[in-house]
Amino acid sequence: MNRIKNIFYRVRSKIAFYPTIISVTGILVAFLFIYLEQRGISKYLMDMAPGLVIENTETARTLLSTLIGGLISLMVFSFSMVMILLNQASSNFSPRVLPGIISDEKHQIVLGLYLAVILYNIFILVSIEPTDPSYQTPGFSVLIAIILTVLCLASFIYFIHNISQSIQVGTILYAIHSRTKKSLLEVLETEVKNAIDFPEMHDWAALKLDKTGYFQGALKDDLLDICLENELKIAFIIRKGQFILSNQVGILTNKSISEEIKAKIFKCLIISKEELTGDNYLYGFRQISEIGIKAMSPGINDPGTALNSIDYLTELFTFLMQTRDFEYLSNEDGTNQVRFIRNTFPEVLYNVLATYRPYCAHDIMVTGKLLNMLSLLRQRTVNSQQSDAIVLETDNLKKDMEKMIKNQRDLTQLRDGFHVWS
């Protein structure tokens, strides 16, 4: 089941997922109405509401042909809008935000609706075959085609509104922030149930990986079953999102295992050729940071976006501070069988600040915002390691700030902690 969920998630992120499903539905609906036409549904509707039925065969053909041509033009325009959106998001923000936009189900559903109605109209048009004077034009099916086309026009208006909102940087930042916050909350909820006991890894057997790519995690249920069946404990020394090489040591086991068990373990690993956001909250920090840094580039010059990105990062850091350094998989008794290593708060904080400092140390507003973020985080630390990391990053930021900013009033304001608007 865990493997099926992983496959579903990968397919779900593709832009053709919903359009394919909805298109197949449109074909099935067309065959259903062709069957109903054979059962005389148009004749029944003619008796009940003759004003709704198109009796003339040529008129029905012309109307369906017009609807098909119009919807194809509408679909081409909509697809062009999506491509423009992706190109603009990649240029102005970061190429890493594209998977989130592509997987937006609203865009997929609208495009799928266009394809479904086009296919429905085509099959209904093909089914019009007058062979004798008594032939009944499929008036009811044509009526449904008109209604579906009107629905497509309404969805097109919604599509234009939604796509104009999707390209706004505030919407993109909020979507990334919400997705990352949700992942962090799920991690915190899971950690409440799990203990932190795990044996010392002295003289454990090392396993060399058999693939090259980005390590995205493991099929947890399958991996846990392997551990329970073979009385095995596993510790990963590679991290989610890390690029790994074949023959690289990445896993430790508490005892030597056979090649068969090793192969089963490797089958549980999720290794892809490209970076996938998935449920890895670390990508959220990375994407928001990249958007903030891109906004500070001379070509874009948008410090306001950088300020907003720091606001979102501040809240995410408060949740990250509550997470543990390791993730565990436990059996029904609560005994930990598998341990994954995580990126700790000091590591993530350094990576974020290391990207902001070179581009923002000269800007008093952004630097003040970063100092304010560090001050707020210092009030919410869980342990001394986090406090030491915040103090160290604050000192590094102040050193860069003093090198880049020459105005003494600005330096005094920064030291005193002035209020930065956002």
From TrEMBL:
Positions of transmembrane segments: 15-36, 63-86, 107-128, 140-160
Domain of life: Bacteria
Cross-referenced InterPro entries: DUF2254_membrane (IPR018723)
KW RNA-binding (keyword) present: no
Pfam families: DUF2254
Keywords (A to Z) from UniProt: Membrane, Transmembrane, Transmembrane helix
Name assigned to this protein: DUF2254 domain-containing protein
Organism: Maribacter flavus
Biological classification of the source: Bacteria, Pseudomonadati, Bacteroidota, Flavobacteriia, Flavobacteriales
